[in-house]
Amino acid sequence: MSPGFFAGTSAWALYHSPEDSGLPLVCDNDRMPAASDKLCVEVRRIQVITLMWMAVEAAVSLVAAWRAHSLALLGFGGDSGVELLSAAIVWWRFSPNVADEDRERIAAKLAGVLLFALAAIVVLGALMAFAGRIAPRTSPIGIVLLILAAAIMPWLAREKRRLAEAAGSAALKADAAESAVCGYLAIIALAGLVLNAVWNARWADPLAAVALLPLILHEGWEAVHHQSCNCTQ
What we know:
This protein is an all-alpha fold. 79% of the residues lie in helices and 0% in strands. It contains eight helices and no strands. It has helices at 3-15, 33-68, 71-93, 100-131, 140-167, 170-199, 204-211, 213-225.
């Protein structure tokens, strides 16, 4: 089975979340203040976890990319940097002492712009890979990192998607999309390395990455233009 097909089916499974998130819908007119406070605390907690992991992920992947001359790890490290910035933006969006309406609108637009930046990283990496100008070496550290990211990022994306539905937050929804894409790219990079090592199929990684572009661009456009509810502190 090709990496592109696996990535496409994984995207549908991860983004098609249940309507019942298990949390109160804070956009409901009958919401309770305590429930809203609890929800915002949960969002900030998941963003702190994201910030800690993405800082490690970005640093290790970029160092491993430099040592192994790996385009896949370089692209993955760039994605990790975008996700780190996005997590910081959403953490700020749910922090106190800022007007809810203003911070939601600004954070949603910034998160959407970061998704477009991620799409540009994928396109640039794919073009360089198709050109065949880079011959990456094996990177055991990079492989271990990708395995960990493939396990951690889908979980983070599911939690953010659940909280975004409850909060009605376009910014958090866009950040969930970036976490999901980060997990997909980790899986694709692993699959590409295996195919390249066994069958010398250097086209597999960039082809699968390009298949993710419609999803990335759609989520970015939706985040920039979507008008969502507020999370009351």
